[in-house]
Design a protein that fits this description.
single chain, 134 residues, alpha/beta, Rossmann fold, four-stranded parallel sheet, two-stranded antiparallel sheet, 4 helices, GTPase_HflX_N_sf, GTPase_HflX_N, GTPase HflX N-terminal domain-containing protein
Length: 134
Amino acid sequence: MTAIRSVVLVGLFSAKDRGYQARLDALEARVAALGGHVLGRFVQRRGVSDGGVRLLTAPLSRRFLVGPGKLEEIATTCSSQSIDAVVFANDLSAYQRRWLSTRLGRPVLTATDLDQSVESLTARTGSQPRGPHV
């Protein structure tokens, strides 16, 4: 197990969700309570444009949940700031978690994972790939 100290938060939120900042604040407080430090936040809004309204709850990408531009921003921040893990406000399928971990080169966690960690944030080093940009 490897301790996770630095994380970034990521969330895909509907344009109708006015409380998304409060949700991220609560998630950040949970990370801090477990000994982690949030070094960045990334928010992908869905339904802000006219074409996106009908797809408010659908992921932008079946594989990565967020769009390609947002994914690149997250990856760049992770590598430049030596981020240990990425914590998503959204639930992720095993498929999404696997692809995100591979693309970002670090463990990808969700709020549910934080609930299961009683003493500190940890990740199994053998189960999550660390990419070349770490």
